[in-house]
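Handover notes (outgoing to incoming on-call)

Open items:
1. Transmembrane 4 L six family member 18: sequence verified, structure written out, both below. Nothing else pending on this one.
2. Nothing else urgent.
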Amino acid sequence: MGFRKCGGCLSCLLIPLALWSMIVNVLLYFPNGQTSYAASNKLTNYVWYFEGICFSGVLMLIVAGVLLLLENDNNYKCCQGDNCSKKYKTLLSIIFSALGIAFSGYCLVISALGLVQGPYCHTLNGWEYAFEGTAGRFLADSSMWNQCLEPAHVVEWNIILFSILISLSGLQVIICLIRVAIQLSRILCGSYSLIIQ
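Transmembrane 4 L six family member 18 structure tokens:
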């Protein structure tokens, strides 16, 4: 019962994390609350991968919903025997937790790449990725940030929001890994065999 409660709580945590990922990703489209840069496609290319909206957002909400259903004992049994039903639920839970790891892992990687690349901004040389060749060194050197003349404070905007996305998706990865560990422990500790007879 303790495993089940723990698994259900972890699945519930995925929901607010997914909603926050969607909100943060949407904010990346509007530096300083301005819509003109998105309309004229003057944003970093990693924003258009929809990592927070689709992968750590909508798809993770679906994963969380399925995992919550699987933890519910009152839902429809997938086969006649109770032990058989538990085996299928365990297998499905591992599969959907693994999908959650893939979805949130994608968001984590894309957000990290966006953070290291830096923003697409207007410099003295025109619109460009001002920090693309710095291998992320600009992140620790705020004196370089004034190279971006427009949008105002776009470097801080990108650093903060991409960092939040990395944190949110990282938490999702950890939660899904814990869920896989819980399900595997049920199998390995002899609660029931995964082999369906």
